[in-house]
Structure formats: structure tokens, C-alpha cells
């Protein structure tokens, strides 16, 4: 499994912008003047070239969008599950599938109209076929506007996530909210995690790095996870579960023995046992925090 960097994905334009860019490029890069002396064969070639050029540019633009977004089967399960938690992988696949369908449909439209242009018998007929071909291609692109907007939303969200290498040495900090996880991370790393005395301060996965005996470690602060069934957990909690399940890490489970976090020791122990299966084959250290309170 390869590590994937969502920050490298270029901005996904909306349907109208794609249409404007491609039509402008066609206007600039292909001949625009028809002279009186052109034979019917040359007229046909003139407009066939415009249709083919427009199709090729639409195809390349949509292909770039499809190729830049990762296939879920090709990326690390950590990122695959994170994408599913945040956006639903079925909707993600559907959006990419609709763009692929539009790409193929545009190619078919161009092929059909190029065939018709071969039998164009006048300047008016050839020009009308060209206008119809470009119009249908543009309509197809405009119809996938919601899919393009959805992918741009995913790109923006995933690009804001911290860069996490699922295969490097990792220390995963977990436990109930407000037990001191973020404070601990601030002490041992160069990350600056917001520390507030209320639950769910850590709204996403926060990453820092620390060195120990000449080795670099990745330290991840996870959102607080509550002692509830999986189906009742919210998106923040599911991010924690995704990290725990797929990262190759040593786990620090923080326990607030003072009870000042708002959860009793019994509740914290119950949380530990409810998610214990996620710690299988991972080094596990229970950290007793706030012993001075």
C-alpha cells in the first residue's frame, strides 16, 4: 500500500469553468476564418478539426481529475477508511464514475458528429453540425457539476488533514476527552495542539514529531472517544477508531485517576475494555495522568 498525499490534487473546477476554458482554448488553437474558395472537403476538415480538438481537451481535463483522485484499493486502509468516515466511499466512487461516464459520452458524441461531418454538403450544414456537437459536449459537462463540486469538497477537506505516514514509527495517544492527551503531546513534540478544559477540543487528528535515541517518531493526538456502541459514534470518534485500527503504532491509553475529566475510573476502564480488540498486536502503555490532583 502506498502513502497518498491529498495536498497534491489540483483544484477541481466546476462544470461552467471547464466549458469556458475548453471553448476558449478551441477558439484560440484552431483556425477561425473560412475563406470563400474553400472546397467542401476542406470545409468538412475545418469543422471536424474543431470537434476533435474540443473532445480531446474535454477528455484530457476529465481524465486528469479522475487520475489525480486515488483509487480506494490502491491507498493505505487508514486513508481509505478515513475517506469513508468523512464522506462515504460509495458516494466518492459514484462521483468519479459519473465523470468517467461523461468522458466516454463526450468521446462518443464527437465520433458520431465527425461521421456526420464527412457527409456535410454545405458550409451551413457543416457549421450547424459543429455547433450541435460542441453544445452536446458542454451539456454533458454541465450535468456533472454536482459530482465535480463534491470532489472539490473532498479535496479541500482531505488536503487540510495533517500528513500522516501509516508505515512509520507512530505513537498513538488515546483515551477519554480532557484526560491530558493534548498537553502531553505539546510537551514531547513541536506541535501546538489547542488545550481547553472541555471535551472534544481536538477536532481532527493532530500530528507532531519527536526524536528519541536518534530515531524520529510520529505522534498522533486523536479526538476523545466515548464508551458507546460503534453505530452511535460521531464522525470525530470514528476518526479515532480508524487511526487505532490501521496505524502501525504503539498506543498510549491515558487514564485520569483524579476523575477531574468528568469520567470515573470505572467508566474509563470500561472504555478501555470496549476497544481493547483494536490494540491487538500493538505495544500498549496505560498512562495514569493527573496524579497530583
Describe the structure concisely:
With 293 residues, the chain is an alpha/beta fold. It is 52% helix and 12% strand.
Give an overview in words.
- This protein is α/β, with parallel strands linked by helices and 293 residues long.
- It has two domains: 6-160, Four Helix Bundle (Hemerythrin (Met), subunit A) (Up-down Bundle); 170-289, 3-Layer(aba) Sandwich (Rossmann fold), CATH 3.40.50.300.
- The chain is built from nine helices and five strands, in the order ααααααβαββαβαβ.
- It has helices at 15-29, 40-68, 77-87, 89-117, 123-143, 145-160, 181-188, 235-246, 265-274, and strands at residues 170-175, 206-212, 215-221, 249-256, 284-289.
- A five-stranded mixed beta sheet has the order 2-3-1-4-5, sandwiched between helices.
- α1 runs antiparallel to α5, α2 runs parallel beside α5 (123-143) and α3 crosses α4 (89-117).
- Mean pLDDT is 83; it is low at 196-201.
- It holds the Pfam family FeoB_N.
Amino acid at each position: 500500500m502506498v502513502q497518498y498525499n491529498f495536498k497534491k490534487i489540483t483544484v477541481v473546477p466546476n462544470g461552467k469553468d471547464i466549458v469556458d476554458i475548453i471553448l476558449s482554448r478551441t477558439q484560440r488553437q484552431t483556425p477561425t476564418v473560412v475563406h470563400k474558395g474553400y472546397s467542401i472537403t476542406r470545409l468538412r476538415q475545418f469543422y471536424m478539426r474543431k470537434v476533435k480538438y474540443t473532445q480531446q481537451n474535454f477528455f484530457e481535463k476529465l481524465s486528469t481529475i479522475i487520475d489525480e483522485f486515488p483509487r480506494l484499493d490502491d491507498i493505505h486502509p487508514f486513508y481509505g477508511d478515513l475517506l469513508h468516515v468523512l464522506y462515504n466511499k460509495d458516494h466518492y466512487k459514484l462521483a468519479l464514475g459519473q465523470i468517467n461516464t461523461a468522458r466516454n459520452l463526450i468521446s462518443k458524441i464527437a465520433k458520431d458528429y465527425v461521421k456526420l461531418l464527412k457527409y456535410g454538403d454545405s458550409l451551413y450544414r457543416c457549421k450547424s453540425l459543429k455547433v450541435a456537437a460542441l453544445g452536446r459536449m458542454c451539456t454533458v459537462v454541465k450535468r456533472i457539476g454536482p459530482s465535480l463540486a463534491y470532489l472539490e469538497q473532498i479535496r479541500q477537506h482531505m488536503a487540510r488533514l495533517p500528513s500522516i505516514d501509516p508505515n512509520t514509527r507512530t505513537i498513538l495517544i488515546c483515551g477519554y476527552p480532557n484526560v491530558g492527551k493534548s498537553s502531553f503531546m505539546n510537551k514531547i513534540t513541536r506541535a501546538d495542539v489547542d488545550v481547553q478544559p472541555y471535551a472534544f477540543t481536538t477536532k481532527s487528528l493532530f500530528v507532531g514529531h519527536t526524536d528519541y535515541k536518534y530515531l524520529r517518531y510520529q505522534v498522533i493526538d486523536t479526538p476523545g472517544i466515548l464508551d458507546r456502541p460503534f453505530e452511535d459514534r460521531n464522525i470525530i470518534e470514528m476518526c479515532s477508531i480508524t487511526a487505532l485500527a490501521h496505524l502501525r503504532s504503539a498506543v498510549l491509553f491515558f487514564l485520569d485517576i483524579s476523575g477531574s475529566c468528568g469520567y470515573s475510573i470505572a467508566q474509563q476502564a470500561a472504555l478501555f475494555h470496549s476497544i481493547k480488540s483494536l490494540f491487538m498486536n500493538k505495544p500498549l502503555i496505560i498512562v495514569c495522568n493527573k496524579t497530583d490532583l
